[in-house]
């Protein structure tokens, strides 16, 4: 998918911040083979962090992501098969990672494909599955990571959605479970701040990749819907996975050291 209204790239790139060069250990990125997760993993590595990604089914894609990650001095990158609804497997992975060193960052970018449906057409069992794969999975992940994050005084960044700020019709299967994730982020930020752990969210708006690309491929978003979405966005264009990764890396870094319990919408102004 292309967007002709996207800005022209600058002639000279700004220097890459070395946000994580001083961090011992690893950053864990769930959903590391997805449109957002793989770019977040790459940008964390470019900023100096060793990265562990999780994937649910596509081992070949996971190997490709690892091949894209630049080497870092703080450790080695790794990929791990994981079903986040499996509490025992999630705890075992965290134990494996922390056996090698600290866990300083968790970026939760995993999530199933979310079809766009009016809530009146959603079956209760379909909604329950979505909540399990979104909300319960996030809680399971955090529960497993908390002891390690307390030791490292680390942080969690949850990738949610701008739809919890301004609701677009037919997005309830995404907005409702992710609103619960955002409530958990605020709750954990409140309760775990005394241990030095920060929790924040990034809310993507319409993008040229990631979930939007899958929705276009599945037919859930046609050209008319895309035109409406673009006209509803003050910047009159869509964002990219890199926009989300930049926000996630900032919130995970010491530059955001006094930010916790917050949500940063990266949506071109859609929520204003």
Query: What is the helix content?
Result: 40-55%
**Unreliable runs:** 1-11
Q: For the largest sheet, list the strands in their spatial order.
A: 3-2-1-4-5-6-7
Rounded to an integer, what's the Rg over CA atoms? 18 Å
Tally of helical segments: 8
The number of distinct β-strands equals: 7
Average pLDDT, rounded to a whole number, is 91
- Output the helix-strand order: EHEHEHEHEHEHHHE
Broad structural category:
alpha/beta
Termini separation comes to: 25 Å
Strand content is: 5-15%
Tell the overall outline: globular
Tell me the major beta sheet: 7 strands, parallel
Report on the structure:
With 272 residues, the chain is an alpha/beta fold. It has eight helices and seven strands, in the order E-H-E-H-E-H-E-H-E-H-E-H-H-H-E. A seven-stranded parallel beta sheet has the order 3-2-1-4-5-6-7, sandwiched between helices. Helix 1 (37-46) packs across helix 8 (241-252), helix 3 (87-98) packs parallel to helix 4 and helix 4 runs parallel beside helix 5 (172-192). The longest helix has 29 residues, at 124-152.
């Amino acid at each position: 998918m292309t967007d002709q209204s996207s800005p022209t790239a600058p002639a000279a790139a700004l220097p890459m911040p070395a946000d994580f060069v001083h961090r011992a250990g690893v950053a864990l990125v769930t959903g590391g083979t997805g449109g957002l997760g793989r770019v977040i993993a790459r940008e964390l590595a470019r900023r100096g962090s060793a990265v562990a990604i999780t994937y649910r089914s596509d081992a070949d894609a996971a190997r490709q992501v690892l091949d894209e990650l630049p080497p870092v001095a703080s450790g080695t990158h790794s990929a791990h098969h994981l079903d986040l609804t499996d509490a025992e497997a999630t705890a075992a992975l965290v134990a494996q990672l922390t056996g090698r060193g600290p866990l300083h960052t968790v970026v939760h970018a995993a999530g199933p494909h979310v079809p766009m449906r009016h809530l009146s057409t959603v079956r209760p069992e379909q909604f329950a599955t979505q909540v399990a794969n979104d909300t319960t999975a996030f809680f399971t992940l955090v529960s497993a990571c908390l002891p390690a994050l307390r030791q490292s005084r680390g942080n969690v960044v949850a990738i949610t959605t701008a739809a919890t700020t301004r609701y677009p019709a037919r997005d309830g299967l995404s907005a409702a479970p992710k609103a619960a994730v955002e409530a958990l982020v605020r709750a954990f930020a409140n309760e775990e701040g005394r241990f030095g752990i920060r929790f924040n969210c990034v809310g993507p708006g319409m993008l040229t990749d990631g979930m939007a690309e899958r929705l276009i491929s599945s037919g859930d978003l046609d050209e008319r819907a895309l035109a409406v979405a673009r006209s509803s966005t003050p910047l009159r264009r869509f964002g990219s996975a890199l926009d989300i990764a930049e926000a996630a890396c900032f919130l995970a870094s010491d530059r955001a050291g006094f930010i916790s319990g917050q949500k940063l919408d990266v949506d071109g102004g859609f929520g204003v």
